Predict the structure.
Amino acid sequence: MIHVHSLLSGIPLTSMEEVFTTLFEKPGLKIERITSHGQASPEGFWYDQPSDEWVLLVCGSATIEWVDQPALTLHPGDHVTIPSHTRHRVVQTSPDALWLAVHVDG
Amino acid sequence: MIHVHSLLSGIPLTSMEEVFTTLFEKPGLKIERITSHGQASPEGFWYDQPSDEWVLLVCGSATIEWVDQPALTLHPGDHVTIPSHTRHRVVQTSPDALWLAVHVDG
């Protein structure tokens, strides 16, 4: 039986932390929803991920900082591909930021 | 250099056919945008795909018909996982239907 789920259901209205919800998963692949509520990466923290990530900002706004290029601000509908081990951090998110992230190994 | 792209840019305002745009691809995985303009699968045609598909309806509405369960109508933000070889067809799409599809082998 195939069911419909909504990306917009069950979103916490507020949270002290980002909330990660896995939508689909199989070996080497994970699709997840991330809700941010104004969170940013801690000062001095850099993501350095073993997987490639394709990320779409669905709602809100967010700014991603990189080691070796200017920061990028995303608006709804914007997507970026972040190759594995590309160091980055999230400088700001709006209170209503909602991401769709696809993590791909290999 | 990492660039931002918009899911909403370069959408054909009208088209006789659905338009497929690859957003990210690597072996065993493809993320694509599909714009529909009221198209439906031809009468008697059934998709029977070798890959699993996770699909999100971003804009518009669409109805998917299945061999062995009732049709499902999707609204913006709705997503479904379609396992490989699950026969289905698209019965209707609105003129502004925009899908995000993730095809996964294996």
In short: Strands of chain B lie at 5-6, 19-26, 29-35, 52-59, 62-66, 72-74, 78-82, 88-93, 98-104.
